[in-house]
Amino acid sequence: MIAGVIGAAGYAGAEIVRILSRHPKVDSLLASSTSYEGKPVSEIYPNFIDCVDTILENSEALIANSGIVFGALPHGVGEVFAAKCFERGIPYIDMSADFRFDDDEETYKAWYGKTYQFPELHKKSVYGLPELNRGKIQAAGNKSVIIGNPGCYPTAASLAAFPALALGLYGGGTIIIDAASGITGGGREPMRAYHFPECSDSMSPYKVGAHRHTPEISRNFSFMEKVNPKARPLIFTPHLAPMNRGILSTIYIPLSDEWKCEAAAAQPRPPSAEIQEKTARIRKLYADFYQREKFVRVLPEGILPATGRVRLSNFCDIAVQIDQNGANLIVISAIDNMVKGAAGQAVQNMNIIFGFEEDCGLDTVPAMF
Amino acid sequence: MIAGVIGAAGYAGAEIVRILSRHPKVDSLLASSTSYEGKPVSEIYPNFIDCVDTILENSEALIANSGIVFGALPHGVGEVFAAKCFERGIPYIDMSADFRFDDDEETYKAWYGKTYQFPELHKKSVYGLPELNRGKIQAAGNKSVIIGNPGCYPTAASLAAFPALALGLYGGGTIIIDAASGITGGGREPMRAYHFPECSDSMSPYKVGAHRHTPEISRNFSFMEKVNPKARPLIFTPHLAPMNRGILSTIYIPLSDEWKCEAAAAQPRPPSAEIQEKTARIRKLYADFYQREKFVRVLPEGILPATGRVRLSNFCDIAVQIDQNGANLIVISAIDNMVKGAAGQAVQNMNIIFGFEEDCGLDTVPAMF
Amino acid sequence: MIAGVIGAAGYAGAEIVRILSRHPKVDSLLASSTSYEGKPVSEIYPNFIDCVDTILENSEALIANSGIVFGALPHGVGEVFAAKCFERGIPYIDMSADFRFDDDEETYKAWYGKTYQFPELHKKSVYGLPELNRGKIQAAGNKSVIIGNPGCYPTAASLAAFPALALGLYGGGTIIIDAASGITGGGREPMRAYHFPECSDSMSPYKVGAHRHTPEISRNFSFMEKVNPKARPLIFTPHLAPMNRGILSTIYIPLSDEWKCEAAAAQPRPPSAEIQEKTARIRKLYADFYQREKFVRVLPEGILPATGRVRLSNFCDIAVQIDQNGANLIVISAIDNMVKGAAGQAVQNMNIIFGFEEDCGLDTVPAMF
Amino acid sequence: MIAGVIGAAGYAGAEIVRILSRHPKVDSLLASSTSYEGKPVSEIYPNFIDCVDTILENSEALIANSGIVFGALPHGVGEVFAAKCFERGIPYIDMSADFRFDDDEETYKAWYGKTYQFPELHKKSVYGLPELNRGKIQAAGNKSVIIGNPGCYPTAASLAAFPALALGLYGGGTIIIDAASGITGGGREPMRAYHFPECSDSMSPYKVGAHRHTPEISRNFSFMEKVNPKARPLIFTPHLAPMNRGILSTIYIPLSDEWKCEAAAAQPRPPSAEIQEKTARIRKLYADFYQREKFVRVLPEGILPATGRVRLSNFCDIAVQIDQNGANLIVISAIDNMVKGAAGQAVQNMNIIFGFEEDCGLDTVPAMF
Known about the structure:
The structure is a homotetramer. By secondary structure, chain A is of the alpha/beta class. Helix content of chain A is 32%, strand content 18%. Chains in contact: A-B, A-C, A-D, B-C, B-D, C-D.
């Protein structure tokens, strides 16, 4: 198969190139970049020297010669490529937010400030979170399909919350997602916030109460929620952590009455036996829920997620714990924002579309450092 | 004045030594360490060469010759020194958790697994958070007093939440504190979790739903809370971030009806005008609340706390934002865990006890990197 | 094939396990550890969960069932395993310094303070730097052979210097190797020097003029040196850099008269045209020298090595530049100390011994971050 | 006194502001910036909030009202300010390279590509390395003087080499300086090379054999060199290390016959008794040489410089060791590139000019992390 990556000079695009260059089913790899057309991709990314010899070409030519196209472009500029791929009858996997909201153009517009150019395409697109939508992605088959590849934070948050929402652990009320991302999440363009001396050895929040991934997370939760699918209040606070890769997501989910534990009378006390016992049951429910998922690891008791342990892999690691008050479930998830949070998940979607093994080209053992 | 530091080989002790060595009111500095008795402190910390020439001595001699003593010791071993200082009529500032719970021995025992050796001392001790307890610390005067110096996380969380609790912004319900600490918080002893390759370039939670600072935070909140001082459910989740210094604390406080804003009908929307207007009013309330505090900076609109901006200073930076649902106040605070979270606050307490300017020896301009 | 790793709980051992677990020719993977016998390796390294299900067993059993054995043990304890493998007629690849000095026991003893237990084995062992010794490693064939896997610094330094020494660029005199290593080079055991707050955001030298890799580098140089193979004065200074992986080696090689350039009359001047032209010729010579080597990349003009660009790969990146005086060649090399500097090179040796493609299981595209 | 800082929005300028804001002799602090005129400096550097309330003004007004002016500007644009200050009869301390070459305009032009606008000023300017030029700086007195504040690398290298050059330890031949700098050395403007994901967790050289600090180092050495002051071949290789502050400089100086030690016959051996004894003597010579210098610390045996141990201080830490061949002296120095390598040294020069204590405002105890 010939795979094409539009926007290969950006971090997400280059990461797709890195993964596809060793994908057993990809015979040939095309890549394009407006800024660097005509140059070898290894000139932009010298780590690719002797590994990837692709020359950056024109997007038109790329689409004409590819069997699948990945669009790693800023929000609002990829629809035209999606349209061309759709016309040619080949899958288009979009890395921007453009196809993450189906036909809810209003929400997209409210957060991204743009309207749909090709509204009809959005009715046919599929939100590419395999653990939620595998059926729809598969159904698309080897034919024309547009995948809205999920955002990094929404991937980490959704996988962490889905079992709680789907299995009735959630009792209603505000779900809080507190997350920290590595600096690659900010992309390749040098900006003051990502200038080493400004962000190294420091931790800070950003876009508090106003991050664009909030509506995407909310949508995802609504697909799972049994209690009250209409109202799903959630708060999402992103932080910047001084590391390259990774998202660590800590989520607070109010428990349903069935799962609540008795709290200590007045002052806080270490977790009670009831709390630990119900936590163990929830861990088991989570493990069962994801039993057939290759890329979700529900960690055994005593091990908590660390972004350093999913480095360069497509894994999402998850741990659960009822808080010492007995009223909330704390779920923690860790992903590599560039892999499961972007390029890896895109390749996972490609694998599903073409009926390859889902971990084909993605069976990396996470590097421990 | 002669100041003595017991346990000067540990990070907190050495940081007190660093600050006191340039304190205008400290004429002489004594230090002790069981492990390194007889050695110059600059042999343990070569950064002190030509700056601090103190020889580590015996704790007994140190207490006999000091006008104030700082105990930077593990939990459960400092009471005996507190007792000796009390007897000698000199202040003792305890850096461990031993004197943070007054006479609530039960809570102390539940979390620290130890009982009080000298129960009567705990009735006389003062919890040394100046922004909460300045009166009591002052009242102690230049005489005998035992200060329980606050924990690092409780300092960051309490300063962030106090105005909301005191001014009726809080409407009841669970308060969630999600915090990240630099690795110095783990102390000087090499351990696998703090081994560079294990924690560098990675982010992870620890002691989820079970950290010892939970009851201390809860106590602090109860002093401020107007709504329902008996029941104060809170969740505290600490994380380890790959940086040396700093605590970044993100706190979710359910708003009282008066402060709630109307939420978007169905899907999340960017913050409404009402949200932004009420956020501005709350920011003003926070600024007023802390107007006379030298070490609390309520940041202007558009600036969010970053641990890198309080580095090496005694400041606590705070920002507020109502979330896009309009139902919760998000408060973010940043401190240097080794300064305002430990050694700096201890020196601030000393300044108050002796009637020095509160920022004497602590007027460091934070290094920007 | 069944491969066994003795000492799999250490960093080097675990890295071999990580690589072998995805090696196309390795059917089964055995691992042993004295400290953790009976436990799954994924309990020690949770990044291995769902990826590597090996249970740590006894070294005896491991040797009995393996077709090749890797010994990732401290210096001086692996000879007995080497002897057993030799007896069984299977290859043994030793990661310690024990088999890096052939029969020069005196040098080994001078630096490592130990004598040989099985002197005859050392006569038969091969120093496993494929770019130097491929013939001898191959000759060993699929039979019994003991490989002394090179040290990390010697690998980086030797590959950088070999062409200069072999092609007559070196004119005699002291060769200086100034190198910096990531902290994984210090191994898995927590020590103060590698405690995050002690080494993060700091740079320092260690073992100045006295590092054990000095004689190993000297030996390697002597195999190549044409000028004066008896006297090969060299200085090697290692540094610790605040990063996980990587060795950056900067080497100063006095040029032979043929290659010297005319210097600026008095004060230094930017590189002359002659310097740049001869540098280009040397670059070409280097590229030709390593043309058939899969793992050495002589970088094109304008690109300098960075450890971040060989991350997790078996590559050694090299650049050359004549200094502005025209009298010395500066050669810079970058490797991943855990891969080409340890585990990857060991697997490369295995591939050569068994006649596999040399990059089998090692064709990783370096991650750009 | 009123001090003014032109170019206060850059890192060097802001660091001068940070130091001067707590300087006991500075009554008032003015600052200017072309880009941010009219804004409070604390808007550019929020760490300054509540600490430094200076409003960025116009350079003309600043010069008119200051008793001393610091110019923290790019090369080639500060001469005009120097001229104005000279005319007004107030000291001007220039942080660029413009006044580091006295009347050697040819060298300046060769490396910086610019000519002198006011050649006569350069005859009157003084190179502001106090440990070399204190007399001349003092002689300038409280009157008009232009100081060329040294570069960061030249400061670290010169202080390390001076005693060897001045005391006859150096025997002629090439001196090699291998140095690594933290990323603040690259300034405040975001650039790809300093974008966190590009430089974090990586080590790389830059401008190999062609860095502009080479001629400055060469000049400094020539002032000290006894052997052959005309020819002073040196090589300087700068590297970028993933840390905020600090320069670690490792220097290789060929020893004079008097100081050479007998080398091991053939293969390298650990340092001989003679080497260790002569090293101890040289350490003593170094300590004596710098005995009266407040900011140079010759470290005791067994302690090597680390940039983390001079953090935020004006210290230069130095250690010496003869290499195991006995023919070269290895000198290692560590400074904080932003303090002794820039802003701190500038303030030290101010102190000397005005006859203040030389460590006035600079007696910071280095933070250990």
